Amino acid sequence: MTTSMPLVRTLSGVVPAWQETVSREDLRTLCLTQKERGARLVSLWGSDEGEENFDLHLALAVQGGLRWLRVPLPPHDPSYPALDDVFANANRLQRATHDLLGLLAQGAAEGRPWLRHGAWPVDRFPLRKGEDGQAYPLLEQEPYPFVTVSGQGVHEIPVGPVHAGIIEPGHFRFSVVGERVLRLDTQLGYTHKGIEKRAESLAPTELIHLAGRVSGDSTVAGAWATAQAVESILGRQVPERAEWLRALWLERERLVNHLGDLGYLCNDVGLSAGFSLFWALKETALRTHESLVGHRYLYDQILLGGVAQGLTVRDCQSLQAECATLEREVHRLQDLLQEHAGVQDRYLNTGRVTPELAARLGLVGLAGRASAQAWDLRVSCPTVPYAQAEVRMATRAQGDVAARVAVRFDEVFESLRLIRYFIEHLPSGPSLWDAFPPLRAGVGVGWVEGWRGEVFVALELGAQGQVRRWHPEDVSMSNWPILEHAVQGNIVPDFPLINKSFNLSYSGQDG
Amino acid sequence: MANILNEILRHGVRSESFSWPQADLETWQQALWRRFGRALVIRHVDAGSCNGCELEIHALNAPQYNLTGLGLRFSASPRHADLLLVTGPVSRHMEEALRRTYAALPEPRWVVAVGDCGRDGGVFGKSYACLGGVSQVIPVDVVVGGCPPTPLQLLEGIWRAVTSARGSILPQPE
Ligand code: SF4
Asked: What is the A216 CA–ligand 1 centroid distance (Å)?
């Protein structure tokens, strides 16, 4: 229990964040007021405080930073008033918190399980401290109670968990009339790997390694956010050059992912030449990573206290040269797509999320910006070196596939500009701590704008500096439900295209 | 259309030749030719990966690797496939789907376990949620380690699978 804590406490570190203890009784009122002032729910999770005591935690994005609310629940009564009517994305977060830890959201709109399919019994909660994390006796997979739509001519199309293409597993249940989608109900959780349990009692260095594998396509963002959290607990800044290099890698990660997505967005409308042209560019960029740091996707480049490799002058020159080539090539491809009537016809008005809907449901990240939700941590809460570089946020208001494509193009060009800026102004000095500060107990947060959107991390280290609780949140958790709205009224064959235009992470949401 | 053609011509042929010894490559292609009529069909299953391994399987489709030219193709259905490419530590929630996909593959069939996770669970290990590797669930012919393995390592693994001892004792078409 944390009753001895002062009411509001500023957390150290690069992310502006405050932690406060809130009583269960005050929680709803506080959330309602915060929501009215424009706050957004970033994450919701729970922790086992021992002897049948549990805390609920919420992270709210507010003006100028992050408010971490800690809500001690009374012993033997791990429940709290549901918040899904205040913040739409609380729905699945509440269900996940129940599946893993047994905290119950009273009065929630739905009680279906979310992450538990039958790998553990309904009355056991793997994240509780008393559970050893080992396998439970094998249970029957429980059928998921999908929402059904009835009416004349309505039929269902079940898809997954194994899909036709090379994609992650998940189940999509379409209710359709003819070719039109009336409703989509999604069941995720197939890739649940128990990462939060796995993290318990790891040393912080091992944790960073795991954090880079929550969602492999966002390894830099995931590892950086976790590194921020540890560094904030240890109370020591990383060398300035290291922060610049981390940002450089984050922009490279954004660049290669956007190039790949743009390729698939060509492929999904039958323009295979576009696919090949984009993927040839992506492959070249991946090989550059290989030659610079020895890993095509920059895994394990973010270390506690800095980055794994400094860059030589020659490395910087080759990156600069590559930026110039990419800029030229991507401009040509952008023209190609814009002039292609067939492509534009498939993109325009497809999978539309209006700005009003986006605001109501809390769409964020890349997809949010394509629906006029002007939030980008690099602009809204910039850390070093983003503050200096003055990032130009890409936004569109149309909210369709075309808008999400346009935001990707804008962000490719902005990332190329940033990479050049970072290289030109790269501070000299070390790029890693020379010695490790002593480990200690404490709490910290990390918050990074990955290519898909924000990656948030809450961390608590125990007395010997080992992990007590680590909760990473990929933006996918909040954005997945909105895909169900985006496909309504569209035709089934456009689903792969709409899905790709969001390109959300299954692994990142399943944990 | 003219613009697209122009762009394709400007880029030219991007596919590359491999660094493996020519003789090895020929053995491989002959094996492919004999057993599969030069069309080895692959089905991929993500059994709980972090999606890093998928990035490299996607990258195999980059023009540099000339996959179709080598006689490899990904299939939408396991029923048309000769080889199963499995990633991830096998999450408990994917165990059943993996078993069923494997069962749907016609004989003869090969299984390649991809990545450190596919080998033994990797960073995720064995737990209430992970089974700790593909071979815990279905028979595996070849393991391609790495986190994630590169496209060339994947190709090499596929090649080892179809030229493996188990492969060569199977009846071969005339
Ligand atoms: S081997 Fe590495 S890249 Fe592949 S799924 Fe496992 S953690 Fe991800």
From this structure: 7
pLDDT score for B13: 82
Q: How far is B166 from chain A (nearest CA, A)?
A: 27
- Residue B59 within any structural domain of the chain: yes
Please report which confidence band the pLDDT of residue B3 belongs to, taking 50, 70 and 90 as the band edges.
confident
Instruction: Read off the CATH number of the domain in which B77 is found.
Output: 3.40.50.12280
**pLDDT of amino acid A5:** 47
Tell me which residues have their CB closer than 6 angstroms to ligand 1: A 213, 216; B 49-50, 52-53, 87-88, 115-117, 122-123, 147-148
With contacts defined as CB-CB under 8 Å, which chain B residues touch A506?
A: 51
- Find out whether A54 and A107 touch, Cβ atoms under 8 Å: no
Residues 6 or more apart in contact with residue A253 via CB below 8 angstroms: A217, A218, A219, A220, A221, A297, A298, A450, A451
- Give the predicted TM-score (pTM) of the model: 0.95
**pLDDT (0 to 100) of residue B166:** 64
End-to-end CA distance of chain A: 26
Q: By CA distance, what is B101's nearest residue in A? A: A162
Alpha-carbon gap, residue A266 to A275, rounded angstroms: 6
- Answer whether B46's CB lies under 8 Å from A191's CB: yes
pLDDT in tens, A26-83: 999 999 999 999 999 999 999 999 999 999 999 999 999 999 999 999 999 999 999 9
d(CA A347, CA A44): 34
Q: Which residues of chain A are within 8 Å of residue B45 when distances are taken between CB atoms?
A: 162, 169
Q: CB of A361 within 8 A of CB of A89?
A: yes
The CA distance from A19 to A75, in Å, is 22
pLDDT-derived band at B38 (thresholds 50, 70, 90) equals: low
Specify whether the CB–CB gap between A201 and A507 falls below 8 A: no
Which helix (H) or strand (E) element contains residue B33? helix B22-36
- How does strand B40-46 pair with strand B72-74? parallel
Helices vs strands, H then E, count in chain B: 8, 5
Residue B29 clears pLDDT 80, i.e. is over it: no
Three-class secondary structure of residue A351 per DSSP: coil
- The number of C-alpha atoms within 13 Å of A208 and in the hemisphere containing its C-beta is 22
Q: Quick one: pLDDT at residue A12? A: 92
The total of structural domains in chain B comes to 1
Q: What is the pLDDT of residues B82-113, one digit of tens each?
A: 999 999 999 999 999 999 999 999 988 999 99
Q: A487: which 2 tokens?
A: 């496909």
Residue A460 contacts residue A241 (beta carbons within 8 Å): no
Are B51 and A507 inside 8 Å of each other by CB?
yes
**Chain A positions in Cβ-Cβ contact with residue B80 (cut-off 8 Å):** none
Give the domain extent around B103: 16-167
B6–chain A Cβ distance below 8 A for any pair: no
Answer yes or no: is B61 within a domain. Answer: yes
Structural domain contains residue B5: no
Domains contained in chain A, CATH given? 8-106 (3.30.460.80), 199-473+492-500 (1.10.645.10)
Residue B89: inside a domain: yes
Q: Cβ–Cβ of A213/B123 closer than 8 Å? A: yes
pLDDT at B170: 45
For chain A, residues with pLDDT lower than 70 are 1-6
User: B173, B34 in Cβ contact below 8 A?
Assistant: yes
CB contact under 8 A, B54 and A119: no
Residues of A whose CB is below 8 A from B49? 168, 191, 216, 507
Average per-residue pLDDT for chain B: 87
| C-alpha distance from B146 to closest chain A C-alpha (Å) | 11
